[in-house]
Amino acid sequence: MAEEKSGMLAKEEKTGLPSGFYSVRMRASMAGRHLSGGEDLLEEEGLESGIHRLLLQGLGSCDRSSRQELSLSIKVEGVRESALKRCALLPVRQLASDNPETTRSFLEEALRALLKEKSGASETARKVLEQVRLFLEPGYPAEWGATLMSSSGKIISLPDGGVRTSHIGILPTVRKQLMEEAQSAGITGRRFPEALMLATKVTAHPLVLLEVCLSDDPGYTTGYIATQKTGYIRLPHLKPEGHPGGGRIYLLGKNPTRSEILELTLSLTKQAVLFDSIMSIAPPSSSPDLLDHLSRETE
Ligand code: AMP
Questions:
Q1: Where are the alpha helices (DSSP H) in the chain?
Q2: Whose alpha carbon is nearest atom 23 of ligand 1?
Q3: What pLDDT is attached to residue 9?
Q4: What are the tens digits of pLDDT across the range 160-217?
Q5: How far is Cα 185 from Cα 281, in angstroms, rounded to an integer?
Q6: What does the alpha-carbon distance between residue 262 and residue 256 come to, in Å, rounded to a whole number?
Q7: How far apart are CA 23 and CA 44, in angstroms?
Q8: For the chain, percent helix, then strand, then coil, each to nearest 5?
Q9: Looking at the chain, which terminus has fewer C-beta neighbours within 10 angstroms, N or C?
Q10: Strand, coil or helix: what is 78?
Q11: Which residue's alpha carbon is at the smallest distance from atom 5 of ligand 1?
Q12: DSSP for residue 219
């Protein structure tokens, strides 16, 4: 303890700033349209390079020629060590699929397997699938946050239209390890770490049963379904190539009271969660193999 404390003091003396974490959140938009967002929890030593990385991400969200129209903000907030939760990322599995039909039918069966203990399970699964279909309906309004759904499949209306999970971050060494292991399992790109962090934070909340996500990036057709018990399952071809629709559903394990909804949204939007370790990242598996895992793990 004394050693730990003196280590902390040494760090403070070196940098002139208190040791601890900072939440850094970037948002880029153009003419009121959201273009890109990103965030991290950074220690003072990594603050400058972390801000630079997010700045480049925001600047890269539009063509150089339209940068004069870009509005980009970066917010830095200190986070007290005592207010920081640390946890491991969910284990990752991948569906082997080369077409939307296989993926949709897996999603349908996975929902049934995950909800099997619940009363009205098939009706709830139907409502989740209906919401997924609606996200892809032409003209469906782009959502800012996730759609909250009660266990009976009813959409819970929220003042901001949805809940936007925030205040997540990952230790730099763990990010590196995650990227390396993801790459060996055939997963590349910048979206995956952020999606895995969001899904882990969301499904760790005791009220949340599962999350389904479809990106609204027309060039990114991979989605996921995640639960705390069964992990994060990547779903390639969840939507057709070039489709601009997308969204997230947080399905709750009960029909919540108002105060439970308030506590949930507060926790998802404000509680700082730092990911300090990863779990397994499996190569793609066939739909029957994955469903078999799901049934066994939900027993
Ligand atoms: P993306 O994966 O960034 O393409 O986002 C897909 C959809 O998920 C968006 O249209 C939003 O509805 C929702 N979404 C994006 N980021 C968040 C977040 N941090 N928390 C909750 N929902 C989000």
A1: 2-15, 44-59, 100-115, 121-135, 172-184, 191-204, 258-270, 287-297
A2: 145
A3: 43
A4: 889 999 999 999 999 999 999 999 999 998 889 999 999 999 999 999 999 999 998 8
A5: 7
A6: 10
A7: 10
A8: 40, 30, 30
A9: N
A10: strand
A11: 215
A12: T
CA pair distance 97, 95, nearest whole angstrom: 6
Ligand 1 nearest-atom number relative to CA 146: 22
Question: Which tens digit of pLDDT belongs to each residue from 127-162?
Answer: 999 999 999 999 888 888 999 999 999 999 998 889
What ligand 1 atom has the least distance to the C-alpha of 268?
A: 20
According to DSSP, the β-strands at 84-88 and 272-277 are parallel
**In the block, residue with structure tokens 């700033």:** 17
CA 152 to ligand 1 centroid distance, Å: 23
Quickly state the pLDDT bin for 18 (edges 50, 70, 90). low
Q: What pLDDT sits at residue 19?
A: 66
Measured N-to-C along each axis, helices 121-135 and 100-115 cross at an angle, to the nearest 10 degrees, of 150
282: left (phi over 0), alpha (psi -120 to 50) or beta: beta
How far is the CA of 172 from the CAs of 43, 85, 193, 278, in angstroms?
10, 16, 12, 12
Mapped onto helix, strand or coil, the DSSP state of residue 11 is helix
Query: Could you tell me the two tokens for 71?
Result: 């509005």
Amino acid letter, residue 198: L
The Å distance, Cα 246 to ligand 1 centre, comes to: 8
Query: Exposed, middle or buried by CB within 10 Å (0-12, 13-18, 19+), for 140?
Result: middle
Adjacent-strand bridge partners of 148: 156, 250
**Encoding tokens for residue 73?**
């903000």
To the question of pTM greater than 0.85 for the whole model, the response is yes
Ligand 1 neighbours by CB, cut-off 6 Å: 142-143, 145-146, 164-166, 198, 213, 215-217, 246-248
Atom 15 of ligand 1, residue of closest alpha carbon:
145
DSSP states of 254-283: S---HHHHHHHHHHHHH-EEEEEE---EEE
